[in-house]
Amino acid sequence: MQIRVGCEFRYESTWPTPAVMQVQPHQDAEQRVLHEAWQFNPPLDLHAYTDLYGNTCQRVLIPPGGQVLSYDATIEVSGLADEVAPGAVQLSVEDLPDDVLHYTLPSRFCLSDVLSDKACILPGTQYSRSLCVRLPAGYRSSATGCSYGFLCLDGGIPFGALVDL
Question: How many CB atoms lie within 10 A of CB 151?
Answer without folding.
Answer: 16
